[in-house]
Design a protein that fits this description.
366 residues, alpha/beta, seven-stranded mixed sheet, four-stranded antiparallel sheet, 14 helices
């Protein structure tokens, strides 16, 4: 009697039925799988025993890897996910009565289920922005009441690079924000879920718009740029940050087998994989932008400065198109949609999607 197939063999034989690896959508760069180089690094880190909870050789080496990008005082704390990174980072630069000034469109305000407020115990002080970017003037709309015991005290400014609207701060814009915040006694946090895409767009080292600009602490994204899982909190101004090890543990973000988070970031950052992947994703977004601008009935409504394209087209067309390609409505009221490209998006994917948009619009016009 033949041996029964292993679960791995069953999965291999059933893979196409579980999901077709040739199918790609434009909903999120989180939809992409792990980069093959990251998977190779994970396999190399496997086997044998390493000390748990961050006392392993890979996490120790990761400190040097990050210091190569962010300077000699940088300290890195791997965590599980982006929300955990943001909440832990913000807690480390605020008191229990603290407030966080952020754009109304910020991920911490719109897409984290209230975690900064419910879990972090923080008050978000939001500001409407036309392009997702804060300025010193916009910050001042919430930077008041510093001695008012009835108001949450503004203690940190949180910005996102690139922003949730796909726009990118220049190093000079971030420096102006940091200088202003520091003058008011506030720290600056940068949500860098797509920091690599910003570095690729700006074509400058990451330190130029973080450490050198005055950012105190940042959340460094990996999952959107080819990691299987994991993000990092990077402390840039140790004098402004407190209790990170305890906050990470209390926030349920301390991985026991941390080597498997750390080695992924080593694969990403020790060479040029992080920039190579981000540049490709950005390039695919630019290709999509060029293609859809030639299609009557499509209006690209925001600058394409990262791996995102925001557009408006008839709602009926978008809904039909969603049956062929996955993507999300960004604004239900206006019909604005968001199309995201990833490290594994191909030119054929983009051209096929653009052709499908043209087909649906032509059908709609008949």
């Amino acid at each position: 009697m033949a041996d029964a197939p292993t679960v791995t063999e069953q999965l291999a034989s059933d893979a196409v039925r579980r999901h077709d690896p040739q199918v790609r959508g434009f909903a999120s760069d989180n939809y992409a799988g792990a980069h093959p180089e990251v998977l190779t690094a994970l396999a190399l880190a496997n086997g044998g025993h390493q000390v748990s909870y961050g006392e392993d050789a890979y996490t120790a080496h990761l400190q040097e890897v990050f210091r190569g990008h962010f300077g000699p005082t940088a300290e890195v704390f791997p965590v599980f996910n982006g929300t955990g990174a943001n909440v832990t980072a913000l807690q480390s630069v605020t008191e229990r009565w603290g407030g966080v000034i952020c754009a109304e469109s910020a991920h911490i305000n719109t897409d984290e289920c209230g975690a900064p407020e419910r879990v972090g115990g923080l008050k978000l002080l939001t500001v409407p922005t036309p392009d997702g970017k804060l300025t010193p003037g916009l910050i001042d709309r919430q930077a008041f009441g510093f001695t008012d015991e009835h108001r949450a005290q503004p203690q940190v400014v949180s910005i996102t690079q690139t922003t949730e609207l796909g726009t990118c701060y220049t190093p000079e814009e971030i420096k102006a924000i940091c200088d202003h915040a520091h003058e008011l006694g506030m720290a600056v946090h940068l949500d860098g879920a797509r920091l690599a895409n910003a570095a690729a767009f700006l074509d400058v080292p990451a330190a130029r718009f973080t450490t050198e600009a005055g950012v105190d602490i940042l959340s460094f994204g990996g999952t959107k740029n080819g990691l299987l899982f994991g993000e990092c909190v990077v402390v840039l101004s140790p004098e402004r940050v407190r209790a990170m090890p305890y906050l990470r543990k209390a926030g349920m973000q301390l991985a026991s087998k941390m080597r498997f988070v750390s080695v992924q970031f080593e694969a990403l950052l020790a060479g040029d994989l992080w920039l190579r992947s981000a540049r490709h994703a950005n390039a695919m977004a630019r290709r999509l932008d060029r293609a859809v601008r030639q299609i009557p009935g499509v209006q690209v409504v925001r600058p394409v400065e990262s791996n995102a394209v925001f557009a408006v087209l008839p709602r009926e067309v978008s809904e039909r198109l969603q049956k062929r390609y996955r993507f999300y409505f960004w604004n239900e009221a206006t019909g604005e949609v968001r199309w995201m490209c990833a490290f594994d998006t191909t030119e054929q994917d983009v051209d096929g999607f653009a052709a499908a948009i043209a087909e649906e619009l032509q059908e709609y016009a008949l």
